[in-house]
Amino acid sequence: MPSSAPSDAILVADDIVVQFDTPEGPITAVDNVSLKVRPGEFLSIIGPSGCGKSTLFNVIGGLLGHYQGAVNVAGETISGPHKSIGMVFQEESTFPWRTVTDNVAFPLELVGMPKRERIERARHFIKLVGLDGFENRYPGELSGGMRQRVSLARTLASEPKILLMDEPFAALDEQTRLLLGDKVLQIQQQLKQTTLLITHNITEAVQMSDRILVMTYRPGKLKRIVDIDLPRPRTSEIVGSEAFGRYVAQIWNDLREEANRGMRDEEKNALHPGDRAL
Amino acid sequence: MTMELSPGRLSRRDYAASCLGLGSFIAFLLMVEALIRLGLLNRFIIPPPSEIIASFGRLFLEENIVHRFFFTAGECLIAGVMVTICGIGIGVVMQRFNLLQRACETWVAAFASAPLVLTYPLFMVIFGRNAWTIIMMGFLSALPPVILKTIEGISGTRKVLVNVGRSFNLTATQQFWKILFPAALPTIFVGIRLGLIFALINVVGTEFLINFGGLGQLINDLAERYDLAGTYAAICFVILVSVLFFMALEKAERWLRPVN
Questions:
Q1: How many Å lie between the alpha carbon of A175 and the closest alpha carbon of chain B?
Q2: Which long-range contacts (CB under 8 A, 24 or more apart) does B64-71 make?
Q3: Residue of B nearest to A81 (CA)
Q4: Which of B167, B182, B259 faces A61 most closely, judged by CB atoms?
Q5: What residues make up the domain containing B204?
Q6: Chain B contact present for A136, CB below 8 A
Q7: Are residues B13 and B96 in the same domain?
Q8: How far is it, in rounded angstroms, from Cα B197 to Cα B246?
Q9: Which member of A63, A91, A158 has the closest CB to residue B166?
Q10: Does B155 reach chain A within 8 Å, measured CB to CB?
Q11: Does any CB of chain A come closer than 8 Å to the CB of residue B166?
């Protein structure tokens, strides 16, 4: 069982178990997963498709009600979405009817901040994600990577204690993904933002994280915790280093077996849809 | 990177489309005129466009067309406002309560295709031979598409947008006004457009049937007098009502949701 649990954690997930009822019987998506995140830490959770990463994201984000275990944020057990957690989703989630500024100002509008002040704050975060000059554009006029940056700025504008991201760059091409990774790293280092990233991309995880939690294929359990001892501040240039390659190889060794298991399971399900492996 | 066309180029395209539309309409009128003059079309069934155009002045001078136009437009406007408020309201309630939606959606859909105009005697009994009978006929016929499209629009809101709202701890009311409603607006507007078509058809149809009110009554009168040119000219005013409503609706949609 993995160790390396920090004591001064801002986020603690204890023995999380999530089961879903299906016509073929209950499926355990997440099985006894526990994790702790230190303030200012960048933690990634990596695993093959179907390992319950997004389910865990929904549990920590308070979007999933039915689970066993507990999630504590700064000592408070959460029972739904918590104001200290800001979420960035995998799917494109900007509001198409709002301009970039209005999208980013959305959480500020909710807390009743005066218009002039919230526009000023929104502009600060738009600049932070490198979208200055696009304040009055609508999401439909932006590329996929720019829209994800709008989502990130919107979440950052709510000044969450913990930034929770579910494969935010999954739909982007590799180059854009690396460059956006740089941007996220830069922001995270600048704001000392506690960040929990869910991903299936090893490069992305190693590039950005202080620690990486590797998950098994279904049922999703913690397999290993890898401390990433690469110098900070980091950029995507680190991708070419020898140490980086070693971390990628080490994590891939852990993941290969799980990914294979997942692939075999999918093939089996495709051949015999009734005999779903639990 | 932006995918927007430059405004100048867009307006030139719009201009070209408008010219083409107008040009093809004029060409159609000229073709009909020619076919009638050549005797290939019966002028006692289809009056020549030149006669229709010539009869416009008569409609203004003798038939009080301006008053009738505003009478019919007013009835449509009242029916449209009523249907927008009630249709969206009912749609929201039905979408909110799954049991209600499952219980009622089928027969609401059935109402959309029913010839409700035939129920006008019932409304004559309830409201009398006045504008309210006409407005209620327009209102009822327009209601089903607005209800159905409101349900479809709200149900079709992308789950991730709802989750964004949840992640920001929105109340149910905030969730509706800040996410569900704006996300559903384009679909709701499709429903309102369809509803207005039904409303206008039923308003003019009921005016025609009960021989009361604006343009429908005038069309009835002119047809009975076998003034075909006048009848077609009056129909042009019905189309004008429709065009004005659609233009106003487009403006309202752009104002409420600048981009889709």
A1: 15
A2: B65/B218, B65/B234, B65/B237, B67/B214, B68/B213, B68/B214, B68/B215, B68/B217, B68/B218, B68/B237, B69/B214, B69/B215, B69/B237, B69/B240, B69/B241, B70/B214, B71/B131, B71/B213, B71/B214, B71/B215
A3: B167
A4: B167
A5: 50-256
A6: no
A7: no
A8: 9
A9: A63
A10: no
A11: yes
Q: A119-129 pLDDT, tens per residue?
A: 999 999 999 88
> What stretches in chain B show pLDDT beneath 70?
1-10, 259-260
A81 inside 8 A of chain B by CB: yes
B160 CB near a chain A CB, below 8 Å?
yes
Tens-place pLDDT, residues A129-141: 889 999 999 999 9
- What is residue B6's DSSP assignment? P
Identify whether residues B11 and B56 lie together within a single domain.
no
Do B42 and B61 belong together in one domain? no
Number of folded domains in chain B?
2
Residues B13 and B63 grouped into a single domain: no
Of the candidates B182, B184, B180, B150, the residue with the CA atom closest to the CA atom of residue B257: B182
Global confidence as pTM: 0.82
**Domain identity same for B40 and B68:** no
Q: What is the mean pLDDT of residues A258-272?
A: 78
- Is B171 part of the contact surface with chain A (CB cutoff 8 Å)? no
Specify whether B9 is located in the same domain as B124.
Answer: no
Tokens 């409201």, residue located: B127
Domains of chain A: 1-84+161-278 (3.40.50.300), 93-159 (no CATH)
Q: What is the pLDDT of residue B2?
A: 42
With contact defined as beta carbons under 8 Å apart, do A12 and A72 qualify?
yes
A92 to chain B: closest CA residue: B160
Q: Which residues between 6 and 25 in chain A have a beta carbon less than 8 angstroms from any beta carbon of chain B?
A: none
**Is A168 in CB contact (< 8 Å) with chain B?**
no
Complex ipTM tops 0.85:
yes
Residue B199 sits in a domain of what CATH number? 1.10.3720.10
Sheet holding A85-88, edge to edge: A85-88, A162-166, A194-199, A42-46, A211-215, A222-227
Structure tokens, A125: 């975060």
Q: Is B223 helix (H, G, I), strand (E, B) or coil?
A: helix
What are φ and ψ of residue A270, in 5° steps?
-70, -35
Instruction: Specify whether B127 is located in the same domain as B30.
Output: no
pLDDT value at A33 more than 80: yes
B28 and B7 fall within a common domain: yes
Q: Return the residue in B168, B171, B178, B179 with the most chain A beta carbons within 10 A, the one to mutate for interface testing.
A: B168
A6 has a pLDDT exceeding 70: no
